[in-house]
Amino acid sequence: MITKQATTDEDLIRRIAQGDRGAMQVLYGRHHVRVYRFGLRLVRNEQIAEDLISEVFLDVWRQAGKFEGRSSVSTWLLAITRFKALSALRRRKDAELDDEAAAAIEDPSDDPEVTIQKKDTGDVLRKCLEGLSADHREIVDLVYYHEKSVEEVAHIVGIPENTVKTRLFYARKKLADLLQAAGVQRGWP
């Protein structure tokens, strides 16, 4: 039996490469929620995000022997998730466009001021995050929700570190503007 605290993710990957199902269960237990949440933020569909979990961990089972350790296991998992999510989005491009068009239709029942009064700051923040471009939202998600470093984000997304820094700068600036427009007064760096 594998104890969760006593075994590193890297040890688990080595054991999975040798066919250890128990190691796979422990790794899944540690990371499936993070993989699901990251996938859900990318695809914005619960069913597709659930399917991504299966695909990601099936890939881990099949490809564990190819893990080179150039990044942390969680970074590797999120990189696999991102690739799978982008592939799923390409397959569903038409449906995504319809969802975006529907989201762009204004709700006449409440004006922005009434909406802000009904929601707490967290809801307003999540709504403002939706106003960012997909590239900026992805960077913010990885840095702030998954606590990844600039270097890890660059590895996951496959772009240079300076590009990550630039996107993060512009994402923060845009988010500050969106929050201010939504009536949330707060100093953002």
Tell me what the structure shows.
- With 189 residues, this protein is mainly α.
- The chain has ten helices and no strands.
- It has helices at 9-17, 21-43, 46-63, 73-91, 93-104, 112-118, 121-130, 134-145, 150-157, 161-181.
- The longest helix is centred in the first third of the chain and has 23 residues, at 21-43.
- The protein is elongated and about 55 Å long.
Report the span from N to C terminus. Answer: 47 Å
**Element-level helix/strand string:** HHHHHHHHHH
Task: Detail the poorly predicted runs.
Answer: none
Q: What would the average pLDDT be, to the nearest integer?
A: 83
Largest sheet: none
What amount of the residues lies in strands? under 5%
Shape: elongated
> How many individual β-strands?
0
How would you classify the helix and strand content by structural class? mainly alpha
| Count of DSSP-assigned helices | 10
Brief account:
The protein is mainly alpha-helical. It has helices at 9-17, 21-43, 46-63, 73-91, 93-104, 112-118, 121-130, 134-145, 150-157, 161-181. The N and C termini lie far apart (47 Å).
List the helices and strands and how they pair.
Elements: H1 9-17, H2 21-43, H3 46-63, H4 73-91, H5 93-104, H6 112-118, H7 121-130, H8 134-145, H9 150-157, H10 161-181
Helix pairs in contact: 1-2, 2-3, 2-4, 3-4, 4-9, 8-10, 9-10
